[in-house]
Amino acid sequence: MKILLGFWVCLLLFLCGCSPKPGPAVSLVSVRLTDMTAFETTATFTLRFSNDQPEAIHLTGGAHKIYLNGLYVGEGLSSDELTLPRLATATQEVTMHLSNIALITRIKPIIDSKSFDYRIRSTLYGPDGRLRSESAGHLELNDLLPGEVPGTTNQTALTNAPTRGD
Predict the structure, then answer these.
(1) Is the whole-model pTM more than 0.85?
(2) DSSP readout, the chain?
(3) Scanning 15, 26, 40, 158, which has the fewest C-beta atoms within 10 Å of its C-beta?
(4) What angle do CA 38, 44, 46 make, to 5 degrees?
(5) pLDDT, tens digit (0-9, with 9 covering 90-100), for 2-23
(6) Side-chain half-sphere of 87: how many Cα atoms within 13 Å?
């Protein structure tokens, strides 16, 4: 019985040691639509990394899954290195390619509401292995910077476009 209990304790410790460590908090700062075609939209997400540890963290890349109002919209990959100073923040731009065909019917309610909830699940890589981070928040489409959609000259054109019957 003691051998079996010892086995389970060792297995539990081994599995805990293999799981990714918690990483820096990752939050969404802004979204820019940079290119649109009939089948795909390219978006640049600016992410803020917050290091609340007393040591600097060096990252060699990351994968960020992004959800809007609970809907998985895609994954942004980055191979850019980033060093987060101790007790500080840093930003990084991550490009994501979104399938218009997959999202066209599901994204309209988000655009109509002019705001959305987001969730980011990040796996970050560095010399110390994998780190995990998950964060959520809320973003208003009015927060987008001017000129982010090709063909529009300012944000007012994007957020206050007249509808039929006006």
Answers:
(1) no
(2) -HHHHHHHHHHHHHHHHHSPEE--EEEEEEEEEEEE-SSEEEEEEEEEEEE-SSS-EEE-EEEEEEEETTEEEEEEEE---EEE-TTEEEEEEEEEEEEHHHHHHHHHHHHHHTEEEEEEEEEEEETTEEEEEEEEEEEEGGGSPTT-STT-SSHHHHHS---TT-
(3) 15
(4) 160
(5) 665 555 555 454 544 455 578 8
(6) 1
Q: How many CB atoms lie within 10 A of CB 92?
A: 20
Backbone angles phi and psi of 160, in degrees to 5 = -120, 30
> What residue ranges define each of the domains in the chain, with the CATH number in brackets?
21-143 (2.60.40.1820)
| CA–CA gap between residue 154 and residue 156 (Å, rounded) | 5
Q: Is residue 69 within 8 Å of 117, Cβ to Cβ?
A: yes
* C-alpha separations of 114 from 57, 64, 107, 144 in Å: 36, 23, 11, 11
